[in-house]
Amino acid sequence: MNKVLPDAEAAVALVPDGATIMMGGFGLCGIPENLIRALHARGTRGLTIISNNAGVDEFGIGMLLRSRQVKKMVATYVGENKEFERQFLSGELEVELVPQGTFSERIRAGGAGIGGFFTPTGYGTLVAEGKETRVIEGKPYVLEPPLRAEFAFVKGWRADCVGNLVYRRTARNFNPVMATAARVTIAEVEEIVDPGRIDPDHVITPGIFVKHVVRGNQYEKRIEKRTVRK
């Protein structure tokens, strides 16, 4: 039952060209830095990345975009990544923009085995084009499909060797829900402990959802925008 892999390089070796990968994080908070860096170094191409956003130009998913390893992004926000924006506007990159709440619920539905759900968000906009709509109790709704992936790269704080995960504060963000919605979830963590060392009440993602665990050995934990008082 030991799910620990020796390093991030061994983990990304499992990912073939053309794979679909969910990547946790919000901005640069709670992203699987070591897994992304190893995937970039390996040169895996034709990827579909499902992530809230694409980091910044030289860090996080931005590294994969700059090296043209990503063919499609499913995200909520173009944001601070100029290369993402440039590739999107030039048509080099296929992009599916999803409202953030809908994005989260589509992933949750994928993990829970739900075939779809109706939401009022996006009705009457481009988001609803080609989708079923319905009026429920006098209010219009759009049918949204679940989101699933072949792989999920999630960033935890602590794990045991059987894959139970604990997250730290806002680094939790999309990681727990993504861990449930992929065929193979790979968790990158800062600390690995023996079974029984994590209080069961503190476990956020049970090990049954996690296929592999990797201990990250280098973290920058960059801040997108630093604001200080004069």
Set out the fold topology:
Elements: H1 8-12, E1 20-23, H2 33-42, E2 47-50, H3 61-66, E3 70-75, H4 82-90, E4 94-97, H5 100-112, E5 117-119, E6 133-136, E7 139-144, E8 149-155, E9 158-160, E10 165-166, H6 175-179, E11 182-189, E12 191-193, E13 212-215
Parallel strand pairs: 1-2, 1-8, 2-3, 3-4, 8-11, 9-12, 11-13
Antiparallel strand pairs: 5-7, 6-7, 9-10
Structure description:
The chain is of the alpha/beta class. The protein has helices at 8-12, 33-42, 61-66, 82-90, 100-112, 175-179, and strands at 20-23, 47-50, 70-75, 94-97, 117-119, 133-136, 139-144, 149-155, 158-160, 165-166, 182-189, 191-193, 212-215. The longest helix is centred in the middle third of the chain and has 13 residues, at 100-112.
What's this, in brief?
With 230 residues, this protein is an alpha/beta fold. The chain has six helices and 13 strands. 21% of the residues lie in helices and 25% in strands.
